[in-house]
Design brief:
- The complex is a heterotrimer of chains A (about 375), B (about 325) and C (about 160).
- Chain A is of the alpha/beta class and about 375 residues long.
- Chain A has one domain (about 25-365): Metal-dependent hydrolases (TIM Barrel, Alpha-Beta Barrel).
- Chain A is built from 12 helices and 8 strands.
- Chain A has an 8-stranded parallel beta sheet, with helices on both faces.
- The radius of gyration of chain A is 20 Å and the shape is globular.
- With about 325 residues, chain B is an alpha/beta fold.
- In chain B, strands 1-2-3-4-5-6-7-8 form an 8-stranded parallel beta sheet, with helices on both faces.
- In chain B, β2, α4 and β3 (about 110-115) form a beta-alpha-beta unit.
- Chain C has a domain at about 1-15 and about 105-160.
- Chain C has one helix at about 110-120; strands spanning about 1-5, 15-20, 25-30, 35-40, 55-60, 65-75, 85, 100-110, 140, 150-155.
- In chain C, the strands form 2 sheets. Chain C has a 7-stranded mixed beta sheet with strand order 2-3-4-8-10-1-9.
- In chain C, a hairpin with a 2-residue loop joins β2 (about 15-20) and β3 (about 25-30).
- The N and C termini of chain C lie close together (about 5 Å).
- Residues about 120-125 and about 130-135 of chain C have low confidence and may be disordered.
- The chains are: A alpha/beta (about 375), B alpha/beta (about 325), C mainly beta (about 160).
- The interface between A and B is large, with 70 and 79 residues.
């Protein structure tokens, strides 16, 4: 594919002009609905689990902490003072309306998915999904949600996926990037089976912790390293799903990388193809080039978008995606500090159809919106 | 031509007997312990080294390969040995064996000091012991370590390497106890092999942002068997993160990509190439300097394609010359 | 064009006021009695830069070493933390190529503003003015009442 370049650009292809309904719509593939505290879930929990939270709390694998500056954009905090992203009304006027968001995919990052007590995890997941239905999907028709699950308990997760799948407003199942085992391992297959049955996809969102070091060479020291490393986990997860044959077993399943940036995908494909041609005897069940499998099944969201020093590098990057450019989805990560402004992340001069695809049409086709 | 990455086989334990202290010889003779038996590669896979002698190496690397100099390393996994005394003894004996059986026998061959990197103080001692021996030009550091290499734990070791005048060669492999990915152990070596590029990315980020090059401004690092087509996108990400989060690591005063270009060189094998050669040319250009790539055959390991052949056909003659020999000559300060 | 944006006493040392001038949002900062004005738009992704926190200066010669000067002159964008020097508008991460738009600020007596207004024959009592006392001319205060007794901060917008 060749990227058309109009230079100098007088009319930016990104949607800077105007706010609200006058501007072309976007479909935001990473929009965070936040809990102000776990108490937000109390109305959706039984007395037993409310008591448990009051008397014990949630245990997680202890993975240490990286001192940092901030989690959220302060100016996205609602007037009530609650956590940014925790009120649908404010998020609507602060982001959905001005950016003319046609649809946004909710990714609730909660302390639920890594709960060690699996029964508590299942109860919390169910509560989080009910909370999403009542407080996000019902009041705001432009939202689609990700099913919260505890992947460590695939049976409970599959049941929860089937329960939510019946609602029709859930688009995908949410995994955090760093798991106990890579996503292709057999233990997770009941989850994918439920996804396929309910017409949902599976998303791997940056970060998370399940006790392993955050890199293949141990625990890094600084938040800047923590924040640089999510592409590693998602690359390992994509590799695992391809090499284990998940997509051969579940051909309609799609995997979406969220909040990992996206410039690493072409080099990953090149490396996987060359590794496959070298080592394919080890995994003879894998009959096709990994690049072919990825080109059908793997999608990437843009944020945090890589910022090469030269505009031409970015255009080359898009060329390196080739036909896979139709798998690039725009994402804001609203309301987190490291989010992208959908208006300015793509350089001017990109082909208009390509931009429209990234901002809207690729997601529409993927999620059937 | 300078071949920046060739391998000599692991020593057999009996090769080391004449060089080990007597009580360790007795230990190995009388116990089940047979040395550093772990491997970085499944032993019979195509990427694993075949056992070949000096004659075979001479023929393949110098006579047929056309190298005038070759930088060798021995991937003996002393980093897999938990017992610190055994690890240090095996490393020392391996280095003496490399000197005696390989480097002293072949003047065109250069070597890498094997060191128990899991024990930074012991590693530093071994490096100091070997630094001035003829033939050793670098220290071998397996890519997978227990802590990322920028960690403050390793700073005294980096000082030692900087002072020794040796290059630090970070090479595919490593045997720490943790999984090779942040999301656990994959089922297949194919996955581990693929993920090793991200391990190199980790080490690059770690060494730069944790200030290794600020503490050791003369330190030189070479990545071997790392691949390089993943590097541009990682540089973009690192520079972006630095602009956002620089205040936490204020000793990093320039964009990380600057440190990379100043301090790090990269062997060309394996070449994880895009299918379109034009795209490969763009990736080489995105590295941002002609000084970075070093010709490397990775003898006797097999890879998916012949990196040298592909690059030299594609790139301008002047850049090809730099990759063939000039970059290595100047980085390793080989003169001539 | 010069715009009256605030009474000098309104912004205390270490404080700031975000004003809207000639269609632009601008942050006016008081650093120990000196005033500086910056465009309230980060050149990175358009974040509301002037709503960010002010930080001191940290220098470091080696890992783990922090030499801190509590000047609070470094403005960090609330979106991604990009740092800009309030005095110059220069970015800390790419000083040679990146800066936020900076405007000249001066402290001017109300009397001088009124006289300048008379010289240019602009009506002191503009019937369209949102409040009495607004002046036009070399000094424009879009929403700002000026009295001859006060001291005012005036921002110059070229063009």
């Amino acid at each position: 594919m060749t990227v058309a370049l109009h230079e100098p650009s007088t009319t930016p292809s990104v949607l800077k002009a105007g706010t609200g309904p006058d501007r072309p719509p976007i479909i935001d593939c990473d929009f965070h609905n936040e809990l102000d505290s776990i108490k937000d879930l109390y109305p959706y929990l039984s007395k037993r689990w409310r008591n448990h939270l009051e008397t014990f709390g949630i245990r997680h694998p202890n993975s240490g902490y990286y001192p940092r500056f901030m989690d959220h954009r302060e100016e996205a905090r609602p007037p009530s003072g609650r956590t940014p992203g925790s009120e649908v009304g404010f998020a609507r006027e602060d982001f959905l309306d001005p950016y003319n968001v046609e649809y946004a995919i909710l990714n609730p990052l909660s302390p639920v998915s890594s709960a060690l007590d699996l029964e508590l995890g299942a109860a919390l997941a169910r509560a989080a999904n009910d909370w999403q239905i009542a407080e996000w999907l019902d009041p705001e028709p432009r939202l689609r949600a990700s099913v919260v699950v505890t992947p460590q308990d695939p049976v409970a997760a599959a049941a929860e996926i089937r329960r939510c799948g019946a609602d029709g407003r859930f688009a995908q199942v949410l995994f955090m990037g760093r798991l106990q085992e890579p996503m292709g391992r057999r233990r997770f297959w009941p989850i994918y089976e439920a996804c396929v049955e309910t017409g949902m996809h599976v998303a791997s969102h940056a970060f998370g912790a399940y006790g392993h070091p955050i890199t293949g060479a141990g625990h890094a020291s600084y938040y800047i390293e923590d924040h640089t490393s999510p592409p590693q986990a998602v690359q390992a997860n994509i590799t695992s799903m391809v090499v284990e044959g998940v997509f051969d077993r579940f051909p309609s399943l799609r995997m979406i990388s969220v909040e990992n940036g996206f410039a690493w995908l072409p080099p990953l494909i090149w490396r996987l193809d060359s590794a496959w041609s070298l080592l394919r005897e080890e995994a003879p069940h894998l009959e096709r080039l990994p690049s072919e499998v990825i080109s059908e099944h793997v999608y990437v969201t843009t944020q945090p978008i890589e910022e090469p020093p030269r505009r031409q590098d970015f255009l080359n990057l898009i060329e390196h995606f080739g036909d896979l450019a139709s798998h690039i989805l725009i994402a804001s990560d609203y309301p987190h500090w490291d989010g992208d402004n959908p208006d300015v992340v793509l350089p001017s001069g990109l082909d208009e159809e390509l931009v429209k695809g990234i901002q809207c049409e690729n997601a529409r086709a993927l999620y059937g919106l | 031509m300078i071949d920046a990455d060739v391998h000599i086989p692991n020593p057999r334990l009996r090769d080391l007997y004449p060089l080990l202290p007597e009580h360790w010889v007795e230990h190995f003779n009388n116990t089940v312990d047979k040395g550093a038996s772990q491997e970085y590669y499944p032993p019979r896979s195509p990427v694993a080294g075949r056992r070949g002698g000096l004659e075979e190496l001479r023929e393949a690397v110098f006579d047929q390969g056309g190298a005038e100099l070759a930088i060798s390393s021995c991937l003996y996994a002393v980093d897999s040995v938990h017992n610190p005394d055994v690890a240090a003894a095996l490393a020392a004996a391996t280095n003496d064996w490399q000197s005696r059986e390989w480097l002293e026998q072949e003047p065109r061959l250069r070597g890498s000091v094997v060191a128990p990197i899991q024990l930074p103080a012991a590693a530093a001692e071994e490096i100091e012991r070997c630094a001035d021996r003829p033939g050793f030009v670098q220290v071998l550091i397996p890519a997978r370590t227990e802590h990322p290499l920028g960690s403050r734990l390793y700073h005294p070791l980096w000082k030692t390497i900087e002072r020794s005048g040796l290059v630090a060669a970070i090479h595919f492999g490593g045997a720490p106890v943790m999984p090779p990915t942040p999301t656990g152990w994959p089922s297949f070596f194919l996955e581990e092999y693929t993920a090793m590029a991200q391990v190199f990315a980790t080490q690059l980020t770690s060494m730069i942002v944790e200030g290794v090059f600020d503490a050791c401004p003369d330190l030189r690092v070479v990545f071997l068997e790392s691949g390089f087509t993943w590097i541009p996108s990682h540089l973009w990400r690192m520079d972006k993160e630095w602009r956002n989060l620089r205040r936490l690591v204020p000793w990093v005063r320039r964009p990380p990509s600057d440190y990379f270009r100043e301090h790090v060189r990269v062997g060309i094998q394996p070449l994880d190439a895009p299918p379109d050669p034009a795209h490969l040319g763009e990736v080489v250009d995105q590295l941002g300097s002609d000084d970075l790539l070093l010709y490397a055959s990775d003898y006797p390991h097999v890879h998916a394609c012949d990196a040298g052949d592909l690059l030299f056909r594609l790139l301008p003659e002047s850049l090809g010359r730099k990759i063939r020999s000039e970059n290595a000559r100047s980085f390793y300060r080989m003169g001539g | 064009m010069k715009y009256v944006v605030a009474e000098a006493s309104e912004i205390e040392s270490g404080g700031r006021k975000i004003v809207s001038v000639a269609g632009r949002s601008i942050g006016v900062f008081n650093l120990d009695g000196e005033f500086f004005a910056l465009r309230n738009r980060c050149p990175h992704q358009g974040g509301k830069l002037c709503e960010g926190k002010l930080w001191g200066v940290i220098r470091s010669e080696r890992p783990g070493d922090f030499e801190y000067r509590p000047s609070r002159e470094i403005l960090c964008c609330p979106w991604h933390g990009w740092e800009f020097h309030v005095r110059t508008g220069q970015s800390w991460c790419a000083p040679e190529r990146l800066r936020v738009r900076r405007y000249e600020v001066e402290t001017v007596a109300g009397e001088e503003i009124a006289e300048a207004a008379e010289v240019t024959a602009a009506p002191i009592e503009d019937p369209d003015a949102p409040s009495p006392g607004m002046v036009k001319g070399p000094y424009t205060a879009e929403t700002y009442p000026v009295s001859r007794e006060g001291e005012y901060l005036v921002v110059e917008i070229p063009g």
